[in-house]
């Protein structure tokens, strides 16, 4: 295995970014990234409330709802793949503004849909923007914050993102029965365009500049960070230990800035682990979360109560992100993911066999917590850390695309099982998938806890 020069030109960009204390500029990037990620998650999960309402009023059917969800995933898949290539080639800044523009405008068009076919088409375009946002957001923040707090900060971003889950359910509970489902799209469309404008002040990642050999640009960006920290903290940053930085270069994986690097050498096992992890997490999310209101409706619960029960259960999403952020830098990524996949499988098996509504809500709440611990540690923190800077967005994008690709067909499988066999086979299938993935990660996954990005 060859090695790259992360310190060419004696800039030591990565080492200097990692030695910075957390400051206002980091919080600004977190807030602006978080706003976009919140809207991304909100737009994804509004499908749960909207589809339940469309099914109830006869505007749609279970089959059309499944098509809506599958087309969303096709858009998410395209967005993830395009972002991987565009973000690694043209920079993170290029893609993290473009995606908001796409799904903001498309959401406003969705609000005036004359029929379900038009709404489904708009959803596919929205999905492209949504897929780009989730790939860029977590990787971008991870490139700005120091290694020792990276897990906690990216988990915080996941918390902000996943507050949108109960937020979307709550807003759906308030808006849909009163003024209609179209205003859900109006809300997210207008907000996305506002955040698109605000994000113009986020700088380009200096690690990306360095990976492209643009050392002067990288130096200017790092100097901006250093100056900001020194002025805010009233300190003088001490020089880094260059001898240690040079010694650490031997641990940096060599890549040729090619998509095919994802399928060579040590990177291949990481690509497989990342892809299988996100296939499982995405299947888990979009089988359980998206279909919850429909599952309630199928059991004879009215629309208003269905949305209310869904809101209660979705409170577990931000709680799961909080727990994930608390444990990720303490116990590491790998074994936390394995443990909670096993727990989610057990809860998923027990959930559909309950007849008491209190137990259904309790187990659903606990399952939601487990799912979003996995989302936080697996999707947000772990997978972007697996890939070197030169191909980070392509690796993350490919893994996300694999997850989206698998779930393009999942809604049809879920719809078929619900119509013919009920809910139990759906959750049994999930349990098998979770067990398989836990074994793969246990055998082939690496631990990335608090390691510098260029040394993982």
UniProtKB/TrEMBL annotation:
GO terms for cellular component: plasma membrane. CDD domains: MFS_SV2_like. One of its GO terms (molecular function) is carboxylic acid transmembrane transporter activity. Residues 29-449 form the Major facilitator superfamily (MFS) profile domain. The chain crosses the membrane at residues 25-46, 66-87, 94-112, 118-141, 153-175, 181-198, 272-294, 306-328, 335-353, 359-383, 395-414, 426-446. It is found in: Cell membrane. It comes from the Bacteria. This is Inner membrane metabolite transport protein YdjE. It comes from Clostridium luticellarii.
């Amino acid at each position: 295995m060859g090695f790259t020069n992360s310190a060419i030109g004696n800039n030591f960009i990565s080492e200097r970014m990692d030695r910075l204390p957390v400051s206002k500029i980091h919080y600004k990037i977190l807030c602006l990234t978080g706003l976009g990620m919140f809207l991304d998650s909100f737009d994804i999960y509004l499908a749960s409330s909207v589809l339940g309402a469309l099914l109830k009023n006869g505007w749609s059917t279970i089959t059309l709802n499944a098509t809506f969800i599958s087309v969303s995933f096709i858009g998410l898949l395209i967005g993830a793949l395009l972002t991987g290539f565009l973000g690694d080639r043209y920079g993170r800044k290029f893609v993290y503004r473009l995606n908001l523009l796409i799904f903001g405008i498309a959401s406003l068009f969705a609000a005036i849909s004359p029929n379900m076919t038009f709404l489904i088409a708009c959803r596919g375009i929205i999905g492209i923007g949504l897929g780009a946002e989730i790939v860029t957001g977590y990787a971008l923040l991870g490139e700005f914050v120091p290694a020792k707090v990276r897990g906690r900060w990216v988990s915080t971003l996941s918390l902000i993102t996943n507050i949108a889950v109960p937020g979307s359910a709550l807003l759906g509970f308030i808006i849909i029965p009163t003024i209609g489902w179209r205003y859900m799209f109006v809300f997210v469309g207008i907000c996305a365009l506002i955040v698109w404008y605000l994000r113009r002040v986020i700088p380009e990642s200096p690690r990306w500049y360095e990976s492209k050999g643009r050392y002067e640009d990288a130096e200017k960006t790092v100097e901006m960070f250093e100056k900001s920290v020194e002025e805010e903290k009233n300190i003088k940053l001490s020089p880094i230990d260059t001898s240690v930085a040079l010694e650490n270069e031997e641990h940096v994986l060599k890549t040729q800035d090619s998509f095919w690097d994802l399928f060579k050498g040590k990177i291949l096992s990481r690509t497989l682990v990342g892809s299988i992890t996100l296939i499982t997490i995405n299947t888990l999310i979009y089988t359980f979360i998206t279909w919850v209101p429909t599952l309630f409706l199928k059991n004879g619960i009215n629309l208003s109560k269905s949305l209310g029960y869904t809101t209660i259960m979705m409170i577990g999403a931000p709680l799961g992100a909080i727990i994930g952020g608390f444990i990720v830098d303490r116990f590491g990524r790998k074994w936390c993911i394995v443990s909670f996949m096993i727990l989610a499988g057990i809860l998923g098996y027990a959930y559909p066999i309950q007849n008491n509504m209190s137990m259904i809500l309790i187990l659903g709440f606990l399952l939601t917590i487990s799912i979003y611990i996995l989302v936080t540690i697996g999707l947000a923190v772990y997978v972007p850390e697996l890939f070197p800077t030169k191909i980070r967005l392509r690796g993350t994008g490919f893994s996300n695309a694999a997850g989206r690709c698998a779930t393009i067909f999942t809604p049809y499988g879920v719809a078929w099982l619900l119509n013919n066999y009920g809910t139990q086979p759906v959750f049994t299938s999930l349990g098998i998938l979770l067990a398989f993935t836990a074994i793969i990660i246990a055998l082939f996954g690496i631990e990335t806890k608090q390691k510098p990005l260029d040394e993982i």
